[in-house]
Amino acid sequence: MTLNQAARQGDQEALLDLPDSLLEIVEILGLGSTLQLVKSHGGTRLFIPKQAKVQHHLADLLGIEQARRLSNHFGGESLTIPRMANAMRGKRNREIVRRYDRGESVRVLAHAYNLTDRQIYTILSRPV
Q1: Cα 115 from Cα 123, distance rounded (Å)
Q2: What does the radius of gyration of the chain's CA atoms come to, in whole angstroms?
């Protein structure tokens, strides 16, 4: 599952998985843009310019409006963007269970998520 799919699918569920350090960013940018930051900068420190310009990489990533919102709130600061590997894996696993419950085969799911059949069975055997 992509980050954007996670954002569209259960905003409440996704918010529960977010570390506290990202909740403030979600309030400013929304869940989808925050997850884009995690995808592109997770595990690193990200300097937020005091004024976001059109040519800045944040404007390319999020759009100039979102980049300006981030600059208005955090301009001049460096933010540590968590990787969220466990949370994203949990989202992926919940989506696998949902798709399996809707009738998709283990083989199709393994191919879709680039996992082995055995990994899919392990995910399906765990409590959600």
Answers
A1: 10
A2: 17
Count of other CB atoms within 10 angstroms of residue 60: 12
Instruction: Write down the pTM of the prediction.
Output: 0.67
In this structure, the answer to whether residues 91 and 118 fall within a common structural domain is yes
Q: What range does the domain containing 51 cover?
A: 3-83
24-67 pLDDT, tens per residue?
999 999 988 998 999 899 999 999 999 999 999 999 999 999 99
Q: Is 90 exposed, middle or buried (0-12, 13-18, 19+ CB in 10 A)?
A: middle
CA distance 14 to 105: 25
Q: Is the dihedral of CA 11, 88, 62, 81 positive or negative?
A: positive
